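[agent] plan:
  1. take the single chain provided in the ticket
  2. run structure prediction with default settings
  3. attach structure tokens to the ticket
  4. add a short note for the reviewer (M.T.)
[agent] executing step 1
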Amino acid sequence: MDQRYLGHNWEQGAGSGLSGFLRENQQVARAPTQDGAQIHADHAARARRGSIWQILAIALSLAIAAFSIYVLVRAVSAIDPSALRQAITATSAEQIMAAVLLTVVSFLALTGYDGLALRQLAARVRYKTTALASFTSYAISFTLGFPLIIAGTVRYWIYSQEGLTASKVASLTAIAGVTFWFGMAFVLGAGLTFRATAISAINHFYPLINMLIGLVVLGAILAYLVWATIRRRDVCIKGFRVELPGLGLTLGQIVLGVIDQCAAAGVLYVLLPSHAELDFFTFAATYVFACILGVASNAPGGIAVFEAAMLKALPVASDEALLASLVLFRVIYYLVPFLFALAFLGAHEGFRRWNSLREAMRSSEEETVLEDDFNPLRRWYRDMWWKR
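[agent] step 2 finished; step 3 output follows
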């Protein structure tokens, strides 16, 4: 108690005792009420700031999507449909096969995302289950968008059958997402750093600016590696706490991410009609930047945004040829894996239900045998009935 406050009440309070005690308790009770009001005000202020950032993010996504649709519509409106069909049919079988092979490499690298995440979480899951969960979650979320929700849901459907909890599946999805962004950041940073002059012809920045941006991106990755080495890596993502991998697994994340991004970029690169004006490393950096714009727009698969960015960035002989390559890329890298993913999920669920039914039938047969052993009269009656 504050002795000065008690003395002041004693001097001014007639009849003193009870009235002073009540006034004291009112004053003491007022402080926590004010503290609670302050805490509530702080929470409200943070909520308002969060709402403002969410509104700004949504506005940015809509602006990117709207501008990209405008650019794409203008570009497509000037394209001759017959020339587009000819460009598609002009694509050779060797280009198609190379694109399919690179798609397989990309999705194999994606299975490694889940493998590294499971190792970080100390969870033992068979590789065929890991491959099924990874392939189907990415193939479906790439096409439908909302990767955290859709990929997490598909993963939980499969991994929960192996005993993984919802929190572990959420952590796995977050760690796999970090691996994806590592690959994109490294390819973009390396491209801007070592192909600064070639990329300046695309983004119209000075080569020095491109190099500085690339060095900043690579420096951020290096800083993360140092941070992952010297301290605990607990972070809060979407309201739950995740421990990110250490140095060894992080280097594995970077390698897998680079393989995935380069293979995915290679799918479109081999489908282009001509590569004379653009080397692969410059193209890969341009491809990753277009993918980042697609992710920022929140459009399913970055559709329209990715195409508009590539149409504006790539120097090709004709827009029809480039659009034909983009259409084939969407079919080979997005649509075909999406259909395979749906088929695999259906087959997986069908086999799981059939195994459950078979186990139930086997259990029923075993119960019948046990009942016959303990009840010979029941067995005799059943045999006599069947004979009739």
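[agent] step 4 note for reviewer: Residues 41 and 305 are 40 Å apart (CA to CA).
[agent] ticket updated
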